Amino acid sequence: MKREDEEDEVCLDESFFINDNYQLTSFTFGSQVLELLCLQSASTDFDLTGQLVWPGAMLLNDYISKNSELLHGSSIIELGSGIGVTGILCSKFCSDVVLTDHNDEVLKILKKNIDLQTSSKNANSNAGLAVEKLEWGNLEQFIRFKGQGQCKFILAYMSRAKVMDSLVINEATRHKMTINEIAGTRSVVGNHEGVIFEVTL
Question: Residue 16: pLDDT above 60?
Answer without folding.
Answer: no
